[in-house]
What we know:
Helices cover 46% and strands 13% of the residues. It has helices spanning 23-33, 40-57, 59-62, 69-83, 89-102, 115-124, 139-145, 158-161, 168-178, 192-201, 232-236; strands at 7-10, 17-19, 109-111, 128-133, 154-157, 185-189, 205-209, 225-226. With 238 residues, it is α/β, with parallel strands linked by helices. The protein is built from 11 helices and 8 strands. β6, α10 (192-201) and β7 form a beta-alpha-beta unit. The chain folds into 2 domains: 7-16 and 112-234, Rossmann fold (3-Layer(aba) Sandwich); 23-107, Haloacid dehalogenase-like hydrolase (DNA polymerase, domain 1). Strands 5-4-1-6-7-8 form a 6-stranded parallel sheet. It has a two-stranded antiparallel sheet with strand order 2-3.
Amino acid sequence: AMLRLRLLTWDVKDTLLRLRQPVGHCYAAEARAHGLQVRPEALGRSFREVYGAQSRRFPNYGHGQGLSSRQWWLDVIKQSFRLSGVQDEAALTKLAEKLYRDYCSSHNWEVLPGAAETLSRCRQLGFCMGIVSNFDNRLEVILSQCDLRHHFQFVLTSEAAGFAKPDGRIFEQALRLGGVRPEQAAHIGDDYSRDYRAARAAGMHSFLLRAAGQDEGPEVPPKHVLPTLSHLLARIEK
């Protein structure tokens, strides 16, 4: 392409990996294994409410507020169950520990169609590759478990960076890690403001993964939209 790209940075959740089942269903199944009956839909609603509140109160996993991401997540999980009517604190502690560990594994994550092939091809084309993700420090393990880690020179999480997308400073760190200028890099992700617009604001190129028929959202030039990951290669082939 005329883009002269050297570095590709990638979002993870819903770009390369997705959850195998909704959080509420996963949490409810774990509760059942501990002899507790909780409705998946109720848990899903509780989780969304608690996750939103925790994210506003302690942004980026409580980085800079003295929380570890592990403690942040244990609190979210316990509070989600409490809000769904579970009162047994001993059970809550066990559930939270188990679910925190389970989300480290390929047991709960699957690779999106076309992701592995696209990453392999990008590597063969000689691009430097990195992850830029609003994620906690479990991400390295998750990527290894899902057999994607080897594609990347670096994995930059918002927890490690100290900044979360759309903050431009996480992209600046990625550019330093890749050793390139912004115009030599492109970011690929599924979120308009955190991925597409934020990378462009940092001076990078970017592509928005947006499945056909997905609610359209803001206007994006067609050549920047990827209906599937496999479409990326036509946009960047050297």
